[in-house]
Amino acid sequence: MASVVLHFMFPDTYPIYDVRTVEALNYFGYLESKTVSHKRYTKFCKVLNEIKRYVDNYSLREIDRALFAFHKQKLVKDQKTKFKVSKPKITKKFN
């Protein structure tokens, strides 16, 4: 919840820390863990800010919404139907 407050106060600096976004980033190999904890927020911010630099015409909120939508449309759907999503080939790692 604190990340939401920080995000709306400083939208260009702090992304919203959400379990769905974390799971999507984990799926693509950007984060090692699927769980949310205050200790992992720094790494999460670093990854999202690196993605933002790579796609500089998108805001943190737009990136967050895209990851959230991916989670809802692909990961949740696949968990319900037990089908696997084939992972796209990632050309750049953000670490």
List the helices and strands and how they pair.
Elements: H1 2-9, H2 19-27, H3 41-54, H4 60-81
Helix pairs in contact: 2-4
Based on DSSP secondary structure assignment, what is the total number of beta strands? 0
The figure for the number of domains is 1
SS-based class = mainly alpha
Radius of gyration: 13 Å
How would you sum up this structure, described in words?
It is a single chain. With 95 residues, this protein is mainly alpha-helical. It has one domain (2-81). The protein is 56% helix and 0% strand. It contains four helices and no strands. It has helices at 2-9, 19-27, 41-54, 60-81. It is globular and about 35 Å long. It starts with a helix and ends in a 14-residue tail after the last helix.
Please name the defining characteristics of this protein.
95 residues, mainly alpha
Short description:
By secondary structure, the chain is mainly α.
